[in-house]
């Protein structure tokens, strides 16, 4: 820790003979020098990758139109009738905010956050200008005309079938509270799976991991909790492996569950649950690196920090190696991805079903140290950015053929009716110099900035062919 000497005399900076430099001039000179070092480090860093120096935000001209973000102007209406108990309990005496309106199922702004069925995305009927467009927050139909149920999920691209698979929590059941102070919940129904060739029209492949109705001792009994399922493929064993957060109704079990299948569409056989490395585990994800090594990342120590460690070669267990990261920062919902040798991660704060500010993090090694880069959200308005566009991240999916371009996949939770929670898919771009220095010294990192752009309506670039 650096201590300041209160008895130290003011420092005089000598410039030309007989003159002094103002402190502001010195500060700006130092800033300019640091920026020069940062640009030099970028050139050196990129030089080993073919010598291409890209200082623009976009790494692909096809994606530049998505960087022209949209702004949102939402006026909070005057009170009309009684607020819902949930909103009144959250902030009974203070002036109403957009977050209060978001959580209030009786709000006059309900249609802004949760548009009605008339505006739903319907791949089987949208043959006009809306075809292949994403509308964050709208109801999204599958190819049978039913709302997609794949919350807290992730995407797997299957090489053998050249198909995308979207796995997530199937929440098509009534929302209730197990006890007075309990969080809103839906009984476990299972893990839903959807397939697609273009990441837009999704076919329902059914529930690939089903709940247990009778055996109350089973992890998958409907009274328990199954969240954030992720699936990866193991080339050595030929198995599709699913990891998920497993808990009891009071969130005291805090474990991970593992299931396997011979096919991406299941059925998956549930193996067991455990506390990874002996620690409590709640929000989690799985990341498969370029060399085939898979890692688990999970919130632990009552969500005060994240843990990360490699899985065994068969992806069915953790090894003894584990690192604690982002200690004391209270982050959850990790979504990890990689670009040009640098590892990136998006996390959220811990505020239950209420939305909060996302943060981006980066590291040269997946095991750390991890640096916090700040809020990646751009566009909307200040409240949109501070609430991750009223959503919580769950996965970041790379777009093949578009270097530095990804889809940020998030859930807009509806705690009044969890089955009606929505999906927020937005373009995420890695590019341009980082805009804040490292925490542990005065230098700037060599990695690029992460930006998530808000759009009411957007589509993938026409040059993207969909399949790898």
Automatic annotation (TrEMBL):
Gene3D superfamilies xrefs: Glycosyl hydrolase domain, family 43
GO MF terms, alphabetically ordered: hydrolase activity, hydrolyzing O-glycosyl compounds
Protein name: Glycosyl hydrolase family 43 protein
Originating organism: Salix brachista
Keywords on record: Glycosidase, Hydrolase, Membrane, Transmembrane, Transmembrane helix
UniProt record, GO biological process: carbohydrate metabolic process
Pfam families assigned to the protein according to its UniProt record, in alphabetical order: Glyco_hydro_43
UniProt family annotation: Belongs to the glycosyl hydrolase 43 family.
CDD domains, alphabetized: GH43_CtGH43-like (cd18825)
Highest taxon of the lineage: Eukaryota
Segments passing through the bilayer: 21-40
PANTHER family named in the record: GLYCOSYL HYDROLASE 43 FAMILY MEMBER (PTHR22925), GLYCOSYL HYDROLASE FAMILY PROTEIN 43 (PTHR22925:SF3)
Hydrolase listed as a keyword: yes
Region feature (Disordered): 68-95
Biased composition (Basic residues): 80-94
